[in-house]
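Design a sequence for this backbone.
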């Protein structure tokens, strides 16, 4: 039975991950934390919750001293679109936040899981079936921090033996908490607007492929990797994982099969389009499949059915 501390626990992933982990490890063994007490009441009230700014190393240290977790799941970060509008904030939170977590983990003997992203790739990366080990020259501040973060996690493992692990998540689609300002957010907003207003204006251009994943598969990936046998891990940090790759018109036509009156038009946002154009179309996730049994359950059709069912209840 593991004890887990989660940072950034009130964001899109944390809101669902904390409840998922509490079901597995027990309420008191999963300590949620975020910079403020603003978000899911379930996460804040169903188990321990601490206010932790990841830029405050003392706070992290105190929480680790108090709860003695086996693993820190570090989710606190600034995402791609917000990062492009405030690059210095993205650098500070993403780099110093991770550095502080790794330092505390090193001194207290905890493992660390932290997600990287498809944003760790750039325009010179092979776009289709992007390999696990390939060129990484991202052109966003978010991407720069993600590559540096991958390297820093590798460094803490090889230099100090900290048990660091991580995946490169694609765009994540979910209905519990709204996304925090990424480039793939359209693939969440489109479902909300389809259910609420039957129309959506998409800021990403037709024909723009990106990798995506439904949240249940993402949660399963995190637990599978933190529970994986370390002897089998060759890559450890930054495993490519994906579940589907599609462009806006594909998600639109899947939704239309269930909501025939749904209409979509386009008003392309040049900043987010440029970010999307710099990312891969589809990832090769065979290393994750081989090393720890990664195997997603949801494709676009299954996800669309579930999202619309869940949002129809939620937005009633
Ligand atoms: P999010 O933006 O929804 O949540 C991030 C959380 O971090 C927020 O609750 C925010 O309050 C908190 N935070 C911000 N600054 C903080 C600070 N200084 N101290 C403590 N907390 C702070 O993000 P998310 O989607 O849940 O992403 C979590 C991780 O997964 C990030 O590392 C992100 O890069 C990665 N990721 C997410 C996606 C996705 O589609 N959601 C895709 C790839 C990678």
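Sequence:
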């Amino acid at each position: 039975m593991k004890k887990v501390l989660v940072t950034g626990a009130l964001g899109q992933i944390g809101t669902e991950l904390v409840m998922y982990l509490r079901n597995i490890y027990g309420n008191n063994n999963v300590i949620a934390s975020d910079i403020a007490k603003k978000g899911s009441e379930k996460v804040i009230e169903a188990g321990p919750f601490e206010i932790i700014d990841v830029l405050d190393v003392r706070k992290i240290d105190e929480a680790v001293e108090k709860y003695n977790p086996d693993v820190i799941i570090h989710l606190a970060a600034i995402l791609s679109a917000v990062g492009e509008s405030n690059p210095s904030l993205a650098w500070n939170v993403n780099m110093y936040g991770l550095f502080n977590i790794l330092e505390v983990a090193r001194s207290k003997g905890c493992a660390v899981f932290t997600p990287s992203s498809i944003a760790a790739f750039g325009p010179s990366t092979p776009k289709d079936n992007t390999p696990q080990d390939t060129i990484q020259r991202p052109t966003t501040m978010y991407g720069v921090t993600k590559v540096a973060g991958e390297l820093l996690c590798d460094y803490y493992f090889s230099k100090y033996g900290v048990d660091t692990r991580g995946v490169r998540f694609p765009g994540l689609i979910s209905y519990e908490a709204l996304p925090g300002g990424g480039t793939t957010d359209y693939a969440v907003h489109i479902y909300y607007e389809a259910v609420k207003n039957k129309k959506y204006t998409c800021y990403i251009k037709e024909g723009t492929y990106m990798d995506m994943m439904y949240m249940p598969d993402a949660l399963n990936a995190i637990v599978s990797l933190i529970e994986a046998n370390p002897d089998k891990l060759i890559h450890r940090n930054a495993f490519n994982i994906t579940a589907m790759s599609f462009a806006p018109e594909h998600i639109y036509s899947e939704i239309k099969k269930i909501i025939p009156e749904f209409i979509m038009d386009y008003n392309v946002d040049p900043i987010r389009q440029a970010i999307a154009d710099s990312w891969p179309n589809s990832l090769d996730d065979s290393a994750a499949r081989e090393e720890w049994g990664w195997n997603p359950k949801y494709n676009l059709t299954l996800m669309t059915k579930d999202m619309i069912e869940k949002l129809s209840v939620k937005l009633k």
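The first helix runs from residue 12 to 25.
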